[in-house]
Amino acid sequence: MAQTKFNYDTAWKQVETAFNQGKPKTAIEEIDKIYKQARADKNEAQQVKAIIFKSQALQMTEEDSWLKNIKVFEQEIKTAGEPVKQILYSVTAGLYQAYFERQRWKIYDRTVTDNSDPANPDTWSVEDFNQKISHYFEKSLSNPSLLQKTLLTRYDPIIVKGNMRTLRPTLYDLLAHEALAYWKNDESQITKPVYAFELKEMVSLAVPKMFIRHTFETKDSSSNLYKAITLYQDLIRFHLNDAIPDALIDVDVARVEFAREKAVFEGKNQLYKEALEHIYTQYPKNEQAMQAGYLLANWWKQKGDEYKVATGTQTDKMAYTIAYDYASKVVAAFPKSEGGLQAKNLMLEIARPSVELRVEKVNIPDKPFRALLSFKTTPLVYLRLVKLDADISKDHKIFENDEVYWSKITRLTALRSWTQQVPATKDYRSHSAEIKVDGLPHGRYLLIASGNAGFSLEKNPLASAEMYVSNISFIHSGEHYFVLNRNNGQPIDGAKVQVWNSRYDYNKRANVMDKADLLTTNKNGLVTLPKKQARENNYNEVHLEISTGNDYLFMDESLPRTYHSAQESNKNPGVWEEERAKYYFFTDRSIYRPGQSVFFKAIGLTADAASGNPKLYKPESVEVILRNAN
Q1: In this structure, are residues 447 and 464 in contact, taking their beta carbons and an 8 Å threshold?
Q2: What is the rounded distance in angstroms from the CA atom of residue 297 to the CA atom of residue 377?
Q3: Which of 118, 196, 292, 615 is deepest in the core (most CB within 10 A)?
Q4: What is the pLDDT of residues 274-302, one digit of tens each?
């Protein structure tokens, strides 16, 4: 009687059921059956899948299971044949890497010592982990000729299928890119020797045929950077003559990006651009090459960001236009490719319309004034003038929340509305023009600009500029304020000046204003702010509400209190100086391990009670309390 063939799909469904029922031990029993059968069938993919799932089940049943899982994999490596052995090396390296990332904060506090136990990762330093992980990734790439002949279809049970199969056609590709992900990471090698490998050769950004022929020389053979760049050579060499160049293009684009990031020679940005141009123009009808096209567009976008009017060339000025043209071609060719989707977003960013407004903070009543309008990719700007009443002006929540702000002010009734035609531009840059605003009566106003007539909040540029219309102005020296006519500069006699002292309310977690003295200017337009109350309550800022006749000015900007800070006559000088004392601490290091002594010194500063000038503060004793930040 023929023996029934073992059904792996059915067996894995039983494992899934056990997991779903929260029975990891039952799952382990089923997994062990699968593993035993897979060994008998020499089914490499099912063997590896069983090992991986068993490690997941162990994590659910045992504390500190990560180390036991690693031991399981390391034990399997000893008896596994190729290429299962290489797969297990890669997976084990990933387990060590995952543990390092979870325990990074502890591991960084360790130092390289002779007391580390090779069998106990809890004693390892950062460098110990790097050596182990890097070694395992190297072992995962041993016997490359075998790995390059091994198609991934054999390992479908353990591979999550996506859109990368043509880019990772062999087991070698899969394992090599896993190793690259680690070796490309700067954190993987914190400590470096004085002769550390650096990417100084321009050939690192050359065309593939030149790049793979170059020999990178170094004394630092353990360098992860060196391992990464030479592995890129191996991958490109492997795929250089592929009939379908997808995998070659993908790895070459990645190599070019990596080389640009790590290179330390002058002119690397220009060579990076030329390398991308070579890929993009050599494969104009290949979907993978669109990634190079997008990166080329982004290169021009960055060049546009760096443009300076004083020093830039005409080409630099038009960089956004060049970027947009590259991106549009990529989108037209392969709109759903990764490069196409990124290029589409770049186009939206470059062409996104914008408006900005700037006006003088205070303007003279009933006289026209100018506003500076900045605009980008919008041929027509819609403008509104609204008056801000006292209730809106005092509602700070409106001005602190962007969404609430725009929702509120775009619903305000407009005193005036008009449109402004602006010059057409083709460089996707912001341009500016001065526009006329007709005169207004006294008050506080908001000028609002929009890219559409509805002043909508969605996908529409909005800008606003707050202003005051008043003949009142003032200048000050210290606490002495002179109220003047803004139009002719003459002092204003008899103006009422309401003083509002500003402070931070810790209960409300906001700045509040306390009403203080009401002052009247003399014939010279002068008022002097009282000092005592402000000094006693530690007011550091002040607002002035000024009125005269039918004119009024109460700006929202605060002014610094600059009173002379000598002590009051009724306060003990020693107490006064102690209240103002500050200490600046200096420690012998920034981070301490448990048990280490903390050495520190401090310098005390205060203000002299007689003159208000700063001086060293030298009390007889100071109590210092050290707290553990952890």
Answers
A1: yes
A2: 19
A3: 292
A4: 999 999 999 999 999 999 999 999 999 99
Name the burial class of residue 177, with classes exposed (0-12), middle (13-18) and buried (19+) by CB atoms within 10 angstroms of its CB: middle
Measured from the Cβ of residue 590, the count of other Cβ atoms closer than 10 Å reads 5
Rounded Cα gap, residues 319 and 304, in angstroms: 5
**Cα(385)–Cα(405) distance, rounded to whole angstroms?**
16
Other CB atoms within 10 Å distance of the CB of residue 160: 6
In this model, does residue 398 exceed pLDDT 70?
no
Mean pLDDT, to the nearest integer, of 96-113?
79
Name the residue with tokens 């002014």: 559
d(CA 385, CA 443): 12
Show the CA angle centred on residue 38, arms to residues 34 and 43, nearest 5°: 140
State the pLDDT at residue 40.
Answer: 86
Which H helix or E strand runs over 384? strand 380-387
Closest CA to 354 of 244, 435, 429, 434: 429
Summary count for the chain: helices (H), strands (E)? 22, 19
* Residue corresponding to tokens 């684009």: 253
| Contact indicator for 409, 444 with CB cutoff of 8 Å | no
What token pair was written down for 320? 């956004």
Residue 591 tokens read as 């981070």
Name beta bridge partners: 435.
371
Does pTM top 0.90 for this prediction? no
Query: What distance lies between CA 5 and its chain's CA centroid?
Result: 55
What whole-number distance in Å separates Cα of residue 369 and Cα of residue 48? 77
How far, in Å, CA of 171 to CA of 147, rounded? 5
Q: Is 242 helix (H, G, I), strand (E, B) or coil?
A: coil
Burial class (CB in 10 A: 0-12, 13-18, 19+), 367: exposed
- Tokens 């995952």 correspond to 98
The model's confidence at residue 1, banded by pLDDT at 50, 70 and 90, is very low
Closest to 435 (Cα-Cα) out of 377, 358, 378, 354: 358
Q: Are 482 and 525 in contact (CB under 8 A)?
A: yes
Tokens of 236: 């490109």
Q: What percent of the chain has pLDDT over 70?
A: 88
392 — pLDDT class (breaks 50, 70, 90): low
Alpha-carbon torsion (261, 264, 268, 269), positive or negative: positive
Which of 141, 153, 131, 159 shows the shortest CA–CA distance to 86? 141
